[in-house]
Structures are given as structure tokens and as C-alpha cells.
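Note to self: keep these together.
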Amino acid sequence: AAVRDRCERDVKILVGGAAFDEAPEIWRKVGADAYGASLDEALAQGRRLVGL
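Structure:
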């Protein structure tokens, strides 16, 4: 993802929302690290990404 090119840190990208709900696997194509279909799932994925 272009965001990583502009950051000096190891950035994790978590996506969600209507665009990704319509095509759940597209998050991989845009270079995200994870996708959350709901708030609870997004929180769980975020925790996993940062090692909590």
C-alpha cells in the first residue's frame, strides 16, 4: 500500500466498511494487513496485528 512507502515505521493497515463488505477479499489486493467485517472483528484483528 502507498501508505507504507511514506512511513518510517512498520505500519499495519486494517480496512473495513461497505466497499470491503461487497468484496471481502479485496483487502488483500489493496495491500492491507487485515479486514474487519464488524467493529468487534476489526478490534480483534487490530489487536492481533499489534500482538495483543
